[in-house]
Every structure is written in structure tokens, then in C-alpha cells.
Task: inverse folding
């Protein structure tokens, strides 16, 4: 994933939706999106109405920025969703929700997806007892997401769990304790997605 070096709150304002890119800060009055919901830029009020293509594109960009994936990665997920059985849009969102960095974030081990991705890349997270350092790894039902048994990793996760107040989705379960771990109960479904998204617009755009 390419690193965003500028202010990430601009992306929330651009998409017109809170993407929770700064973790706990997004739930406080300090959130930049709450204080200034207009799109970034000097001439924002001079811009005309979005075209049909623009509406479709903004929906896709919102999902990409929310999950922290680039265009090539997103296309791979879409191609896999097209080949799979079922509704293409729902399968696409299910694949994105199954990413290891997203699962780590949804469990509360990381305050944001960027932090969760860094934790995975630095070897703080285990899957079924084995260290996994690939953030895009897709989890499966029955997987156990744990924390590496070392003081720094455990301290980091415990601090994040104490600060985070978000609910764990129904397709996951969290067992707290001296060494917290999460369980993947089933594949994520449409109601498990934590961001409002019109998947049909994305499918129409990517199918052209």
C-alpha cells in the first residue's frame, strides 16, 4: 500500500463521509470532518454538479480509501468477485472485509487500518499460531487471530483495546485477557460492512 504523506482527513472531506482513518480521534470533536465537511480546495464552491461517471467514481474511491488498497489491488478483488458465485458487489465487500489488516482493526487490536497494517507488517499478529506479515492475507472461518507473545506486541494491543470503543462485528468474536485473540466465525456479509456503500455503482463502473 502506498503511504499517504499528506493530511488524511482531506480524503474524508473529498468523499463526503467519515472514513475513520485516524482511529479514536475520528470519534472525538477533534475530527476534521466534523468541523469542516466541505470538500478540500480553494474553489470548492465553484465546482458544478457531479456527472454520472463522477458519482460512480467517488463511490469506488471511497471504498479504496476506506480499506487502504490501490487500484491494481482493487481490480484483483473485483475480478475475483466477478468470477465467484453470488452478487458481485456483496462478494467484493466480503473480500475486502476479510483482509487481515481490516480484521485486526475491526477486533480493536489497531485503532485504524493504517495502524493495523503496520502491526501486521512488523510481525505483531499471528494467524492460527503462526506469524503472518502480509496485510492483504484473506482470513477464513475458523481462523484465530492472535498477538505475538512478546511484551511490546501485547502492550500495544492492550492499549488499543482500552482506547477503542467500537463494537466488534458479528462475523468476529473477541476474547480479551492477558493475551487477547479474535475468532473468525463466518464470512462477512453485507450487513457487516461498517461503511455505507452502494456496491451497484462500483460494479457498473468496473464492468465497463
Result:
Amino acid at each position: 500500500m502506498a503511504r499517504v504523506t499528506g493530511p488524511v482527513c482531506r480524503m474524508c472531506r473529498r468523499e463526503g463521509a467519515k472514513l475513520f482513518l485516524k482511529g479514536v480521534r475520528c470519534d472525538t470533536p477533534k475530527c476534521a470532518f466534523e468541523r469542516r465537511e466541505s470538500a478540500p480546495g480553494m474553489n470548492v464552491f465553484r465546482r458544478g454538479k457531479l456527472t454520472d461517471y463522477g458519482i460512480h467514481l467517488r463511490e469506488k474511491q471511497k471504498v479504496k480509501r476506506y480499506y487502504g488498497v490501490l487500484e491494481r489491488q482493487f481490480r484483483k478483488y473485483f475480478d475475483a468477485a466477478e468470477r465467484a458465485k453470488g452478487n458481485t458487489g456483496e462478494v467484493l465487500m466480503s473480500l475486502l472485509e476479510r483482509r487481515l489488516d481490516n480484521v485486526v482493526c475491526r477486533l480493536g487490536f489497531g485503532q485504524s487500518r493504517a495502524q493495523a497494517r503496520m502491526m501486521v507488517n512488523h510481525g505483531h499478529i499471528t494467524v492460527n499460531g503462526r506469524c503472518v506479515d502480509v496485510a492483504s492475507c484473506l482470513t477464513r472461518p475458523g481462523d484465530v487471530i492472535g498477538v505475538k507473545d512478546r511484551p511490546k506486541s501485547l502492550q500495544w494491543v492492550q492499549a488499543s483495546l482500552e482506547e477503542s470503543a467500537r463494537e466488534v462485528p458479528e462475523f468476529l468474536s473477541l476474547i480479551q485477557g492477558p493475551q487477547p485473540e479474535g475468532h473468525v466465525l463466518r464470512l462477512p456479509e453485507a450487513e457487516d460492512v461498517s461503511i455505507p456503500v452502494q456496491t451497484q455503482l462500483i460494479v457498473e463502473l468496473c464492468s465497463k
User: Anything to note?
Assistant: The mean pLDDT is 82. The radius of gyration is 18 Å. The beta strands are 125-127, 130-131, 144-147, 172-175, 181-184.
